[in-house]
Amino acid sequence: TIATEVLNLLHPRHDLAGETILITAGGTREPLDPVRFLGNRSSGKMGHALAESAAARGAKVILVTASPLPAPQSATLIRVDTAHEMQSAVLAQLPQATIVIAAAAVADFRLREVALNKLRRNGPLTIELEPTEDIVAHVVANRRPGTLVIAFAAETESLEENARAKLQRKGADAIVANDVSLPGLGFDSDSNAGLFLTGTQTISLEPASKQVFAGRILDHAIALRAQTVFRTEKELSRT
Amino acid sequence: TIATEVLNLLHPRHDLAGETILITAGGTREPLDPVRFLGNRSSGKMGHALAESAAARGAKVILVTASPLPAPQSATLIRVDTAHEMQSAVLAQLPQATIVIAAAAVADFRLREVALNKLRRNGPLTIELEPTEDIVAHVVANRRPGTLVIAFAAETESLEENARAKLQRKGADAIVANDVSLPGLGFDSDSNAGLFLTGTQTISLEPASKQVFAGRILDHAIALRAQTVFRTEKELSRT
Question: Which one of A64, B133, B167, B206 is most buried, by most CB atoms within 10 A?
């Protein structure tokens, strides 16, 4: 209930003690020239709220952020600018993580060739973009067995369908899908709403403040972890 | 002297009473699709510092900003996102301005066609850009006689040469040139340094906090206004 959630915000349980949660946040920026960049509208509020919430619940938190938001209390903070910097930081921290939550919105494209000096505005300009690193795919490929990976999908159409396709393509354990075309929710706003999808489940995440929303994601992460541990033990007992 | 400047920050003279100063600030964002954009690294700190300082010195201030920074005290605030929105707001306010200071960093290019839904990261992508509105040129063309126009130039090479060319091309009365390639100065930082150029003068602006820097720009603006009034009166007396 809402009352329980409010109480939990005030007096957090230490149910994440023992976990090391690696969280990405913010929108990365890919330079076009020394002053202009390709960016993503993510404010970083969701990722920073997850970091605050996880730390309050006893987890060791490592936050890799492209957002200018202030550092959350009791989290290790690593500030990055580009997708490449974010990936390097994440892969360096990955070995110690038990849960990875990729809340950052990576600017998925970067310039094939970055201009060394400021481009002049003389007329039309054609620029060639190439995809940036797929950070979640690299995390899935390089994680230790048992490390839970939760991705985010910001969609503007066919929310569940696109997010489920992304979940499968990336090989993550779960994906938080949010519809950023809804006014007052998602990017830059203080609230969020969406779906928590696993390979077998579709759970609705009702509109809530990013603090409450963060708590629910962590609740679902713990439940998913319990299932995974149970399944792994069952598989082990069969061999 | 520095001491005088500190005293002025604490106890501002009301030497801008009677002036209406229209200030632009921040970096505009041009959408690529609903989540990605082309942006400019300007933080808006310089423009917001100018607005604070001008208001403290008795001016009526209208701030058109693309920055998420909080509203300065006693300024009329208009928030915008794109260059087109900024230009519309500026031209609407222009008739009442006696001084215009264009501190915003406009994302000089926008997409020829904006994607309505999120672009998929499937491979390389070629995008066509076109120049955005030239806000300062429109201000110069549409200002009332006597309205002073001060532009900004953020340069990464040949500072004075590029800024002087921009001053002439735009027809502004003065231009504040800053070298954004210097570490610790300009974009995103709390300090600034550069040159104040008029048609006949090159004045060095030594490194200073953006608050002190803003005060110096306003000092030079007042001096320039006095010269302009004197020249206009001389011309009138000759006829």
Answer: A64
pLDDT category at A164 given cuts 50, 70, 90 is very high
Minimal C-alpha gap between B72 and chain A (Å): 20
With contact defined as beta carbons under 8 Å apart, do B20 and B96 qualify? yes
Structure confidence by residue, pLDDT tens digits, B109-162: 888 877 767 667 777 888 888 888 899 999 999 999 999 999 999 887 888 999
DSSP SS3 for B98:
coil
Tell me which residue of A156, A111, A42 sits closest to B33, measured CA to CA: A156
Per DSSP (E only), the strands in chain B are 20-25, 30-31, 36-40, 60-65, 75-79, 99-102, 109-111, 125-131, 148-155, 174-179, 191-198, 202-209
Supply the mean pLDDT for chain A.
88
Token look-up 């979940």 returns: A167
Pick among A28, A35, A38, A111 to test the B interface (most B CBs inside 10 A): A35
Class of domain A2-114+126-238: alpha beta
Return the C-alpha torsion angle B111, B112, B118, B120, nearest 10. Answer: -90
CA distance B23 to chain A (A): 21
CB A182 within 8 A of CB A156: no
Q: How confident is the model at residue B26 (pLDDT cuts 50, 70, 90)?
A: very high
**What is each CA distance from B57 to B19, B62, B99, B104, in whole angstroms?**
10, 14, 14, 21
Q: Which fold has domain B2-115+126-238?
A: Rossmann fold (3.40.50)
In chain A, which residues have their Cβ closer than 8 Å to the Cβ of B134? 121
